[in-house]
Amino acid sequence: MTDSGGASTSGPLRLGLVGVGGMGASHLRDAGKVAPHARYTALCDINADAVKARGREAGLPAFVDYREMVDSGLCDALLIATPHPFHAPVAIYALSHGLHVLTEKPIAVAVSEADAMIEAARSHGLILGVMFQERTRSIFRAAHRVLSSGQVGPLYRSVLIASHWFRTKPYYDSGGWRGTWVGEGGGIIMNQAPHSLDLFIWLGGMPWQVTAQAFTRAQPIEAEDTVSALLDYGGGHTGYLYATTAQWPGELRMEFSGELGQLLITDSAVRLYRLDRPLSDNLRDLPIFQRPTGEWEDVPFDDEDDGGHVEVVQRFALAIRREADLVADGHDGLRSLELANALLLAGYTGRSVELPLDRAEYDRFLAEKRGQA
To answer: Hey, what CATH topology would domain 13-133+308-326 get?
Structure first.
């Protein structure tokens, strides 16, 4: 018995891994942990020596052309762990040939590519997932429960500080594609920050307008190592975002302030401030110079209950069998990428950018940055 995409509904999902260096190697090391829901049945990488060596170690067929692996009949789905400029072509080919797809972040380089991936999945009735494993961390799950349950109330301010992505010159020197427009489609916003952007949107929603600065503050790279932005969500809800690979000490910090209080998320804690009365009542009724009352409390979470990459793969396999929801789907990947693209377009042009993003305008911007215009 098979599902609509051809995957067997009995036994583990047959998963082909595209890209065996870096994250791909990490996924392969977790092969035993994703069982019994999935098992790797084929490997692919353009580095023939590397993929053959991995194939011998794992006892799996090795391919240098992803199309040959897709056409081999050995896989029900692909996990794509290539550099992100290759995510879209690999995914679209696989989806158009009946294979489900789970891709590393970001989903693609440009929103137009992500649109095409989502349409390929929709038109063929297949699953498209994105590897946003930070969502499986209990600290962020706890924060999401608080915000989605309305305990902070309607938001009026959201803040993201993502300065924990410290990277050195040797890091950028380790790959000629790092920090380049052709190799990554940007700098920190396209490589390190997608997880931070996804969490920020998942927790606090999507802005409709972005005003930003994007610049290379410290590293001799082609694209940005720092971005600072003002966000407009509409209805009096505003925000601020700062991301850099060139700061230490760094931190991941998010603040969500609303009518009923404030939620503060740091690297290791979630704290909730509960106002005794709604903010609007305090603003209307309190005597001159009297401040509202409330109390801080720690939001509990189990930091040993983080599912990570393994949970994302397991739930991907179960989602194909309609037994669980994805951790993050293609639309989640699109939202994170759309904010990333908007930040870059606004940051490099010096003007405010509205969302949804003009796809053609961003493609022209990216082509110019790549020297392809």
So the answer is: Rossmann fold (3.40.50)
